[in-house]
Structure to design on (148 residues):
């Protein structure tokens, strides 16, 4: 049950920060947080990372929905049967919470609210769900390697 709580907490935190961003930040606007490094910069992302597939929002919706369904099925199997994979439940909970946050935003708003920007090479504008997805993925990979 704690894994569902983690998943819902990540989802809730992401949702609250996106609501805040939509209320407080101008679309396309830029607010400096750390001089010449970190900014609030709100955009609506109709695609995936780096606006991939932005011209085909239905494909993005189906693709992300399918991936979330597949990950959730794997998560449920790990919860019930696969003792040797239990070390992946926590990172997968974090990833699924983030994925559900972006999926919910996509369903409700037709795109994802991104609002964090770190000025570094070709860094994308992102949100807390993206952080959860990437950090959960790295955590899961490291946990798998550590387990071997």
């Amino acid at each position: 049950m704690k894994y569902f709580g983690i998943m819902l907490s990540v989802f809730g935190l992401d949702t609250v920060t996106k609501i805040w961003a939509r209320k407080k930040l101008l679309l396309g606007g830029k607010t400096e947080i750390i001089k010449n490094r970190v900014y609030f910069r709100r955009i609506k992302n109709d695609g995936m990372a780096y606006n991939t597939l932005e011209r085909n929002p239905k494909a993005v919706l189906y693709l992300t929905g399918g991936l979330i369904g597949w990950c959730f099925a794997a998560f449920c199997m790990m919860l019930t049967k696969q003792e040797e994979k239990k070390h992946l439940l926590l990172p997968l909970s974090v990833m699924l919470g983030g994925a559900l946050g972006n999926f919910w935003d996509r369903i409700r708003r037709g795109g994802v609210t991104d609002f964090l920007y770190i000025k570094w090479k070709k860094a994308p504008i992102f949100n807390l769900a993206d952080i959860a997805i990437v950090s959960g993925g790295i955590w899961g990979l490291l946990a798998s390697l550590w387990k071997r």
